[in-house]
Structure formats: C-alpha cells, structure tokens
Design goal:
Length: 613
C-alpha cells in the first residue's frame, strides 16, 4: 500500500484495538485532539480528514489544554484507551510539554505527535524553528525527551514499521506506561512508502498481567505471617489492574485493615469495616494513626510518594515493607521486599501460601473505630454554618448529590486534601481523579473534558480554585462546542490560598499569593467576573454565596448539564482559610531565618510546627 507517512500513521492508529476493564473491545485511540499549523495541517491534517469517519478529531484551543484532555481521557478509561494530541512545530509543540509531564508523573498513556522542522533543511530557518548553533539535529521537540517514556523522530516513512510496535508496547505496558512522543518533520509527513498491508490489520491489545517471582512471593507471605499489625495500602496500580474488589476480598479473608492512596481512592466503600481511610498529608487522621502502629505495610500498586507517606514520617521507623508493583523501579524503593507483578495476579497467588492465616481481630476492628472518629470529624466540618462555605462543605454537597456512577476530579491547591480526605465512596469502581502526582494547575478543566468523553456511565464534576480557572480555562469552550456535559465548581477564595497557607503556616510573611498581598499600582484593582466569563465560553452558569445556595445551584447545574449536554459552571465564594487537616507532616525547605522573623521549631510525633517566639 503506497501511503504517505501521515496516512500510514493514521491507518495504524485506527487498526489498534483494546480490551477495556469490563472486557469490551474498543478503539485503543478513541480520540485525536488537534490544533493545526503549518507543521501538521497538510501532512497529518490531510490524513486525518481522509479517515475522519473512523477516528474522531476534536479541536482544542490550547495545545496544553487538549493534551491534558487526552490525559484525563486515559485516566477515566483506566489506561485501556489513549488520547492523541497533535500540534505544529515551535510554541504549539512546547505547549504540550507540561501535559507530557503530567502523564509521565502519573504513569498515564499519552501519544503526542508534534510537527517538526524539515529534514531536508533546504528552507531553513523555517517559521518557528529554533536554531542551535552547535547541533543542527536539535529542535524544540527534544524538550520532550525528559518527559517521554519513548521518543522518536521519524525521518523516513519506513521507520514507522519499527517504531509503531514500540509505541504500542509502551502505551499498553503496565510497567512502562507513560507518554510517547513521535516528532514528525513536515516534509517526511508527506513522503510515501510501500507499506505491507498486514501492518494495518486490526490488532487487539491485551494488557499483560505479569506474575511475581515465586521465591519473592513466599518471602512476602512469610513476612505477612510474621506480622501482628499489617496494613494494606491500595494505589493506582490496583485501579488499573481492575483489582479493587479482589483487594477488598483479600483484606476480608485475612482481616487486614485497608488504606488508600490518592490514585487508589474510591476503590473501597468508605464505611467498610476494614477501611481506615486515605493515607498521608491529604488523607485522614484515622489512616495515619493506624499506619504509625503498623509493623508491616503491604503496598499494592503505589509509588509511595511524599504526600502518601507524609515524607516518610507516617510509618514507624522499623516498619516492614512489602510492595506489589508491575514496575521494578517502584517496587524496590525504600528497601522494600519487592513483588514485581500485576496487582490482581499477585494477590491471587498470595492466597495459597497465606492459606488460613488471619490477623488478630482487635487489630482489624481498630480500623472501623478510627475511621468512625474521622467520619464524625468530617461531619462537623460539613455542617452548615454562617458566612462563606468552606471547601469541606462544598465537597460534602457534591458528594451527597452525586450518584455511584458519577466521576469527580480535581488537581492542585487545597481541594485535593478536601476531596481525598473527605469524600465518601460507594466502592467497587474508580470514580475519582485527583491529579496530585504533578499537581498541575489547569488540569481540572481540560482533564474533565477528556474524562467526559471516556466516562459515559455518569456525570463528571470537576472542582477547582480561581487560580486554576485563570491559568487554563479555554477547554471549557472546547467542551461546550463539542457538546460534552460536565459540571465545573469554581471556588473563588481571592488568590492562591493553599500556598498562602504553606507560606504563613511555616512562618513566612503574607506575600504574592492572596490578591490583597500582591503588587498593584491601583487603589481599587479589578476582580474577575467568573460567571460572565464562563457564560461567554458557552457554559450555563449558576452562582452561590452560601452553603445552602451552593447545594441548590449544584443540583440545578447537574440537571442542565445532562439535559443540554454541555458544561455548566457553578461559581461560589469560599472561605480562604478553612481546611481539613489529616495530622501529618510534610518535608519542605524552610529557611532557618526568614526575613528577620524569629522562629523556633517544636517537634511533636508525626508533625513539625514552626511558631513565632
């Protein structure tokens, strides 16, 4: 088949299929997000137009936003489907680097197809080309190398025959999963080659389930049998393995209390008798207290990053660690006994060597007791009060009005702590996306657009602050134009409140976070009319100034989003200094002396406070 490079690439994308978590066959690449420019409009753009009935192409409005939408799609599809984003060379390409970082940090599949400069070099320097005086082979697309699991520059059409199988491997490999970047020079996109027909035959990708080494498996079983106070920690790997119910069954069989990480949230019913709550800084005091007493942690499918481990202060210093992970890189961290394997397969194979072993009933019961106290604390935070609503009250209302199939999202700022620590899940299915691996402001709206494409079993609600809204809001119009329903709750607290909290909580002076502490030449600086702005982007809009008003507005917003199939924005003024605290410590770089403000440090178990004299 004589095809251009671009035609061959598109034909291959269409031929790739995937098995979803519920064992349906679906396109591996269900959507292409595109902003065309001179580096991709004729080559790849023409090829996509020719096959537009077979692979949907959606117009984004910022390259970063559309690539983040592709990331949100992949997360909502449990890594069984992959979003594709293409741009021209230059600023369009570089705008996607941030999204690649998000996918890389969170181990999510993403295919990026930035245009590139001419390999023939005859017209150099072309528009948007950055010339390197000492290396003519370098282009701006080399910036993707640091945030790609796999990178290639296609300089001849026939390279696709060797490269594309590697692309599929990375995007569907549970251990290597992450972003792939194929730089596509403008002239090469239009060059032709005689491709073999069988290269474009439909191919169904089955996500592999690697099994652990038998010696390691028996060593892990011996460690569990020798423990008295084990804790099971469920991470994102359990989600992507589809092993949520299996992990709960494992815990029930042996009486092991369960905690969740950020990526593992909503896998366990919140009131399950063994569920102690989410772990870490943005988690729950209940899980953190139990973790401090645990003598062994079985961590399944998690990187155990600093927010989960409270910078490694949440566990006892002599705690034993057994990790289950498809990536050996993650499994061997912190001197753990590693079980390199799929979560579902490994938990199944642990059954035989553990046989009838069970934890002491008193330790099992402690999970429910501690979580009950945490639930009572959250009830207090959610209770109606005078004045502006808190984040906890906002999250509580969204939680109460959402159904078991609905999907909730956030990313940066203070809302992750409220959503992770306070959300009460019905369990069984992953219905939360908190992007706290890269903590990318702006993901909340763009990612929600992609999630709305993939999560069709319920309504997507995304929660964000005014800072994130101002940083990246253009994909609201993309979702409105495309006709994808979602609800965006914009919490306006007049600045970067959570960073102000960190700044002032560690002894720093209020500076450059709240608008009141930012430099301006005006005595009466302007404020953003978020409602008018969102309305101008094609969204229906509701506003609220109190907790009860918000509950009514959110209920109405849900109805409009579903009936009119478009995004709805709820703007609500919120308290700037009310937070859900999990009683954990976080390692940050605090100067000994901060601008002459005397400090002293008082250390307590599990936390470190910086106070004025």
């Amino acid at each position: 088949m004589r095809l251009t490079t671009a035609q061959a690439l598109v034909a291959w994308l269409i031929a790739q299929r995937s098995r979803t978590v519920d064992d349906r066959e679906a396109p591996l690449f269900p959507a292409v997000f595109a902003i065309f420019g001179h580096g991709n409009v004729l080559g790849l753009g023409t090829a996509l137009h020719e096959r537009r009935a077979e692979i949907p192409v959606w117009r984004g409005h910022t390259e970063q936003g559309m690539a983040l939408a592709a990331v949100g799609l992949a997360k909502a599809a449990q890594r069984r489907q992959v979003g594709v984003a293409t741009s021209s060379i230059g600023p369009g390409a570089l705008n996607m680097v941030t999204a690649a970082g998000v996918a890389h940090a969170n181990r999510l599949p993403l295919l990026l197809l930035p245009g590139d400069t001419f390999t023939g070099r005859a017209p150099d320097p072309v528009l948007q080309q950055v010339e390197h005086f000492g290396d003519a082979t370098v282009t701006v697309n080399d910036a993707f190398r640091a945030v790609s699991r796999y990178f290639d520059r296609i300089t001849k059409p026939e390279q696709l025959l060797a490269t594309l199988p590697q692309v599929a491997r990375v995007l569907t490999d549970p251990a290597d999963c992450g972003p792939v970047t194929l730089a596509l020079p403008q002239d090469v996109q239009a060059e032709t080659y005689e491709f073999p027909e069988e290269f474009f035959a439909p191919h169904v990708h089955h996500i592999p389930r690697p099994r652990p080494d038998l010696r390691a498996l028996h060593a892990a079983a011996a460690a569990l049998r020798g423990s008295h106070r084990p804790l099971l920690v469920l991470g994102g790997g359990v989600r992507y393995s589809g092993a949520g119910e299996q992990a709960v069954d494992f815990a029930e069989r042996h009486g092991i209390p369960i905690a969740e990480t950020t990526a593992g949230r909503t896998l366990v019913r919140h009131d399950h008798r063994l569920h102690v709550g989410p772990l870490g800084i943005t988690g729950s005091e209940s899980a953190n207290l139990l973790a401090a007493e645990a003598d062994l942690v079985l961590a399944v499918g998690t990187r155990l990053q600093d927010f989960t481990t409270a910078s490694w202060t949440v566990f006892a210093p002599d705690v034993g660690m057994v990790t289950v992970n498809t990536a050996r890189f993650d499994a061997v961290k912190h001197g753990a006994l590693p079980l390199v394997g799929d979560a579902a397969a490994t938990l199944a194979e642990l059954a035989a060597p553990l046989a009838n072993w069970r934890v002491d009933a008193a330790w099992s019961a402690k999970a429910a007791a501690l979580r009950g106290a945490w639930d009572a604390h959250i009830d207090t935070l959610r209770a109606p009060g005078a004045g502006l609503p808190s984040y906890a009250q906002i999250v509580g209302a969204v939680n109460d009005l959402s159904g078991p199939g609905d999907y909730v999202m956030t990313a940066s700022g203070g809302l992750p702590g409220e959503l992770i620590g306070g959300w009460r899940a019905s369990g069984g299915a992953p219905t939360m996306d908190v992007e706290y691996g890269f903590s990318c402001m702006g993901y909340e709206l763009a990612g929600a657009w992609g999630a709305a494409m993939a999560h069709t079993g319920g309504l997507v609600t995304t929660l964000l602050g005014d800072g994130s809204y101002l940083m990246l809001n253009s994909e609201l119009f993309s979702a409105a134009f495309a006709g994808h329903p979602l609800v965006a709750v914009v919490c306006d607290n007049d600045g970067y409140a959570v960073i102000a909290r960190l700044q002032q909580g560690q002894g720093g002076a209020p500076f450059n976070n709240f608008y009141a502490d930012c430099r301006t030449t005006l005595s009466d600086p302007p404020r953003v009319d978020f409602a008018a702005h969102a309305r101008a982007l094609g969204c229906a809009v509701f506003t609220a100034g109190a907790a009860a008003e918000f509950r009514t507005a959110y209920a109405e917003a849900r109805a409009v989003a579903i009936s009119e199939s478009r995004p709805v924005v709820v703007v609500v003024r919120t308290q700037p200094s009310a937070w859900t605290e999990a009683g954990a410590w976080w390692e940050v770089g605090v100067p000994i002396h901060m601008s002459g403000r005397d400090q002293y440090v008082a250390a307590k178990p599990g936390q470190l406070r910086y106070l004025r004299k």
